[in-house]
Amino acid sequence: MNKPSIALFFPVYGDEGTVETVAMKSLKVLSDIASQYKIIIVDDGSPDKSGEIADKLAEKYPEIISIHHETNRGYGAALQTGFNYSLDYEWICFTDGDNQYDVNELYHLSKLFHHYDLIVTFRYSKIYGTLRTFISFVYNFIIRFLFKSRLRDHNCGLKVIRSEVVKDMKLISNSAFIGAEIIIHAMVKGYPIGEAGISTYPRTFGASSVMSIRHITNSIKDMFRVYNKIFRQKGR
User: Fold this and answer.
1) In the chain, how many domains are there?
2) Distance of CA 194 to the CA centre of its chain
3) Phi, psi angles (nearest 5°) of residue 60
4) CATH number for the domain harbouring residue 230
5) How far is the CA of 24 from the CAs of 27, 31, 129, 179, 202, in angstroms?
6) Which of the residues in the chain have pLDDT under 70?
7) In 3D, which of 63, 59, 58, 11 has the Cα closest to residue 37?
8) What pTM did the predictor assign?
């Protein structure tokens, strides 16, 4: 079986303790499953040494490139930057820089490449506190209701997508809602979508900002912007 070319990227913000771990694991798995590969680290204006570490990794390993946002532009903007540097490869994998998602999951996700154009992962069990688990439940319920989706988890931070599908999208989210936006675009355009369960792991460094009021508010705004763009404009 021919191996595909794969680009993998992940944004970093306050991830100086994990960025090298994610990068090294990515190098190992991609060297096993890909014919050609590239790893893109997107420093989204991180206030710590994440960007500096990414630069050193890029100097040492030719398969790694380091991209910097001068200011923090948001998770969605960081993903859009990653996509822009990945479109020359057949498949694009994106994950988070905090190492809560194991890129070794690509060993079994790659077995689905011949069946789907987008592979969405869901978490077998939630490792978060009660409040975050509840908010995640409500968030996914609202998305399923608004966008008629049947998927379990729209915001799990590990996905794999065929680059041709990304080229057929015009993403507008700068917030964490971009994960759901990608799914919704693929669903509306009729691309086959697969689901695969994965394990997640506790964050070992730093703290997540996903539960901040600003991030939640921005995600809600993007949710309705995407809804208006896809359904109301499409209807007109």
Assistant:
1) 1
2) 15
3) -85, -35
4) 3.90.550.10
5) 5, 11, 29, 24, 19
6) 1, 125-129, 132, 201-212, 232-236
7) 63
8) 0.88
